[in-house]
Amino acid sequence: MRLLLVEDDLMVGEAVRKGLRLDGFxxxxxxxxxxxxxxxxxxxxxLLLLDLGLPKKNGLDVLKSLRARGSQIPVLILTARxxxxxxxxxxxAGADDYLIKPFDLEELAARIRALLRRQSxxxxxxxxxxxxxxxxxxxxxxxxxxxxxxxxREFALLRAFLDRPGAVLSRAQLEEKLYGWDDSIExxxxxxxxxxxxxxxxxxxxxxxRGVGYMVAKTVAKVVPDAVPDxxxx
Length: 234
Prior knowledge:
Layout: E1 2-6, H1 10-22, E2 26-30, H2 33-42, E3 47-50, H3 59-68, E4 75-79, H4 84-92, E5 97-100, H5 105-119, E6 127-129, E7 132-135, E8 140-143, E9 146-147, H6 152-163, H7 171-178, H8 189-201, E10 207-209, E11 213-215
């Protein structure tokens, strides 16, 4: 999941970006309102974390501009302004949630998960497709009740597929979900992670759509993980 953080306080921005990356999110960070508008126009983000007291253009005006252009991106306001009038103004301008500084990173991550769940039309916090379940909060993945150990990138890639079962995702779309601006991307990184997931979840779990990309079916039949030959990293 790729997020945009708009925060001009360097200590807060660095702490939030680091904490969310450890939680499996790809995070891009800008420090003023104008840069935020450029980033949202150029990139496809799942969620916007928006401070209000920003240079060049304040957060409330950024939010109003986004909604005036028809943007549906979920927006979580992060601010030290704790007056009721400020909260009401932010929510009425189109924000989806409001978190007062200082805040706990675990609560921030939980609020992000809730907004993403609402955006995808799910009520259940656990994503279930066929015999596979994925818990974004605990990072647990189970296949027919048995826990499957995944790396952080494998988990993020699997979540991208399960958030949109039946949709075909191109390699470029998957890279956008996995990597932020500061991350280096090897040319075959997505293919490597898909290969690893197929080893653990079954060779037919992620399907190739020739010339377009990859998909996980909405209804997945019982799958059997492939045997991993000696010497091949799990």
